Amino acid sequence: QVQLAESGGGSVQVGGSLKLSCTVSPNIFSLCGMGWYRQAPGKDRELVSSISTDGTATYTDSIKGRFTISRDNAKNTLYLQMNSLKTEDTAVYSCAASRHSGGDFYSLCPDNYWGQGTQVTVSS
């Protein structure tokens, strides 16, 4: 029954790297826009990055040049490679599938979906 499931979170030191993965139900992955959100303590959830079915990506300014979103359509998996991590990157990272993503409308995407999240902690 799990439609999106994140993995790869953990604790790293400043400057370290992590790669998050999100496995997605095939019917969702092929029809929806995909993205990564994060929510830090005391802050609202924010969109970190999105990617379209053809690979077009968006990034929030705070992580540009450090994070890379990608997808493997054969494996129905979304990735977020995080490099040069900073303490302010500490948050729960969640995978999402949506009908509106990156300025596009995915008319065949049935609904909006969220994973349960994976904790990323960056310490100094």
Main sheet record: 7 strands, mixed
Low-confidence stretches: none
Helices and strands: which structural class?
mainly beta
The helical percent reads under 10%
Q: What is the first-to-last residue Cα distance?
A: 38 Å
- Any idea what the shape is? globular
Gyration radius, to the nearest Å? 14 Å
Number of alpha- plus pi-helical segments? 1
Q: What's the order of the H and E elements?
A: EEEHEEEEEEEEEE
Average pLDDT across residues? 96
Strand segment tally: 13
Strand content: over 45%
Quaternary structure annotation = single chain
Notes on the protein architecture:
The chain is built from one helix and 13 strands; from the N terminus they run E-E-E-H-E-E-E-E-E-E-E-E-E-E. Strands 2, 4, 5, 6, 9, 12 and 13 form a seven-stranded mixed sheet that branches. The protein has about 120 residues and is mostly beta strands. The N and C termini lie far apart (about 40 Å). It is globular. Strand 4 and strand 5 form a beta hairpin.
Short characterization:
By secondary structure, the protein is mainly β. The chain has one helix and 13 strands, in the order βββαββββββββββ.
Strand-helix topology:
Blueprint: E1 4-7, E2 10-13, E3 18-24, H1 26-29, E4 33-39, E5 46-51, E6 57-59, E7 67-72, E8 77-82, E9 91-98, E10 100-101, E11 104-105, E12 113-114, E13 118-123
Parallel strand pairs: 2-13
Antiparallel strand pairs: 1-3, 3-8, 4-5, 4-9, 5-6, 7-8, 9-12, 9-13, 10-11
Note the main attributes of this structure.
four-stranded antiparallel beta sheet; 13 strands; 124 residues; mainly beta
